[in-house]
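Render this sequence as a predicted structure.
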Amino acid sequence: MDTAIECMPCFIRMAEREACIACPDDLDMQQEIIQEWGALLPTLDLNVPPPAIARQLAELVRDKTGCTDLYAADKEEANALVSNLLPSLKDRIETERQKNGDPLSLALELAIIGNYIDRGVEIQFDLEKELAEVVGSVSPEIINEFKIRASSGASVLILGDNTGEIVLDTLLVEELKRFGCDVTFAVRSRPVLNDATMEDARAVGMTALCRVVESGVDTPGTVLDRCTPDFIQRMRQADVILSKGQGNFESLEGKWPGVFCAFKVKCERIARKTGLAFGSSAFCLTTGDDVAGR
């Protein structure tokens, strides 16, 4: 997806937020960052997906302040918060299994709820309430297609997204392994927003569950021209790609068709694109020409 004019207010708010986090006591620097970003916006290439624009803001803030991981404390807090909820959620999935329900679908829906934990947008939500109430919120047709493709022996590549969310992703990985899938989980290669890195994957135990790799990107989404050649090859070879998060959807839609995307709809543009209401859980397949050279 390209970047639309309606994305601009979001980028301005993001600049304000990140300037305040990077230098909370330096009002002059905050103003300098916001003014420079405002002057830069009209010059940016809007043919790239929004996560590619967000990377340029992150670079500006880093260059001006020297702050390399704005959300370090936030990420640690999110991982700890969701880790405390994990035992009860595991019990819930096990109960679903014992009653011959659908534990994989439940794990997927819980993992989608985790996508609310996104510092690129400002959305008010009650995580525990959302987790408690989730049931049958995504397309059963797409879930069935996913199960068919993610059969025993299939290689499944999960494109991870945010911290906190990655804790819930461990539930999904466990269920896919029960299906007999060979699971690989991908993280960002550099801190950006509150996205998960290899450090977070180790901290939450993902590296003990499955193979974890870096995609090469320094963007809050799998922007293909920021990925390493090795990672692009890994994407080509995967039987199933499961993309977590709206930023990954924005980066891959129209670029790499056939990717299963699981995320929370967090802006009106994506709501229109998916045909889902704002705040809905989305589980859909990317469309577009096969321009990725697969």
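Summary. The two ends are 19 Å apart (CA to CA). The CA atoms of residues 142 and 284 lie 6 Å apart.
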